[in-house]
Write a structure and sequence with these properties.
Largest sheet: 5 strands, parallel
Helix content: 40-55%
Structural class: alpha/beta
Shape: globular
InterPro entries: Etherase_MurQ, MURQ/GCKR, SIS_dom, SIS_dom_sf
Pfam family, one: GKRP_SIS_N
Strand content: 5-15%
Radius of gyration: 21 Å
Keywords: Carbohydrate metabolism, Lyase
Order of helices and strands: HHHEHHEHEHEHEHHHH
Protein name: N-acetylmuramic acid 6-phosphate etherase
CATH architecture of the largest domain: 3-Layer(aba) Sandwich
Number of helices: 12
Distance between the termini: 47 Å
CATH topology of the largest domain: Rossmann fold
CATH superfamily of the largest domain: Glucose-6-phosphate isomerase like protein, domain 1
Number of domains: 2
Low-confidence stretches: none
CATH class of the largest domain: Alpha Beta
Mean pLDDT: 93
Length: 275
Amino acid sequence: MQNRITEQPSNYRDLEKKTIEELTKLINTEDKSVAPAVEKVLPRINALIEVIVAKITNGGRLFYVGAGSSGRLSVLDVIELPTTYGVAPDLFQVILAGGVDRLVEAREEMEDDKNEAWEKLEANGISKKDIVVGISASGTTPFVLAALARCRKENIDTGCIVSNPDSPIAAQAVYPVEVITGPEFITGSTRMKCATAHKMIFDMISTTTMVRLGRIIDNQMVNVKLINHKITDRATKMLMRLGNINDYDTAKELLFQNGSVQNALKSLNPDNYPA
């Protein structure tokens, strides 16, 4: 890798001498550069999403293989998808250095393990139907790099989200996304701008994929799981609007009979709504 921008010195000096007001203003100024950095790589993101949608449509799955702050953020994105969109929990999965079950421990020493990620992918029945996306700020993390290299050897499609140009991980990705956010406010602290950019991209990937898979009608979460009173109330009112139902109790009963707003709408008008 020619230039590890994520390790370059901060543009700011003597931070310990600055006031709270000065620090927050400078951090906010740096944060404003994140969205434009993501915008520059939208074509790459679009190409990655296109293949993810195709893989899932044909019975495949998405596996994130990640480490560090960005890897942990991918977990937060993935765990909400079954509830928000009513999809199977194994549709989007994360193989995290140190284990998803030990997320809060931040076991960053496990980032150097070159075997664990592929072993976990194998345990989850990885195949050519799936796609594996590596997550690494530096673009060099051995845990991620080894997994993608093995996937390429096995002819499994790969993508990546990294924050340095010309990285070894990007070289192993068929669909690389290199989002360059520049030096961090605290030198090398990629939990800041870099992780923010990656979280924005995770949101784009999951949301756009779910829309393309037909899990949204108009702009509504019509497959949200009815897990509590707040969500059930929201879903009932959603069904009233979309289904032209005037009575709350009637809509709620229909909702429970069908399990989701989308299924309820389908029962009302099979020709107008997707299955």
